[in-house]
């Protein structure tokens, strides 16, 4: 559950993500016995070893279908917490794009999931395995940029241990949460090996947020938000 300024698409279905493996075989060559005088040998020449190596290296360099990057993790209120972005280059088997109000399917060829855990429990797990995911188009969809949410396990993230997660614009290097008691929590922006990025920080139970600020690499403040509590 969340108190969020972001749009969240409804999701359903289960998929198993697997990274493909490619075996590497070394090339071997043996010299064919010479044929009769004046005649070329009928034995085909083996492929150059360099060509075999090039094909194998190219196969190894193919991008994995699912990429996961931990955005932040630690302990708060005695519980372990973590946030990770999970990018599916293609829509997982069994996943269905959500339906728009006009009856058409939402656009998207890939899936971006925001996996959030508090005390070993995934936030929004009641909504199914894709409740924290949204469809995107390829690796460079600008739609998620600018989203920010305050997430918790109950009461729509209004109380208890909560997680502040932002999907900032490209120039945001880190976020800084200032609580009403003066304590500040800093979180660095992490990019998934595509073009999607996020930062995440825990908000302890019973604490109130005074402001959320975002800064660039030169520590210039880019945004200032006092609407979170």
Task: Please provide a brief summary of the model.
With 229 residues, the chain is mainly beta.
What is the end-to-end distance?
15 Å
Question: How big a fraction of the residues is strand?
Answer: 35-45%
How does the major sheet shape up?
5 strands, antiparallel
Q: What does the overall shape look like?
A: globular
Could you explain the architecture of this structure?
The chain is mainly beta. 5% of the residues lie in helices and 36% in strands. The chain contains 1 helix and 14 strands. It has one helix at 49-60, and strands at 2-4, 66-76, 79-88, 110-118, 121-122, 133-136, 147-152, 162-167, 174-179, 184-188, 190-191, 197-203, 209-215, 221-225. The strands form 3 sheets. A 5-stranded antiparallel β-sheet has the order 1-7-8-12-11, with no helix packed on it. Strands 2, 3, 4, 5 and 6 form a 5-stranded antiparallel β-sheet that branches. A 4-stranded antiparallel β-sheet has the order 10-9-13-14, with no helix packed on it. The longest helix has 12 residues, at 49-60. The chain is globular, with a radius of gyration of 25 Å. 24% of the residues are buried. Residues 5-42 have low confidence and may be disordered.
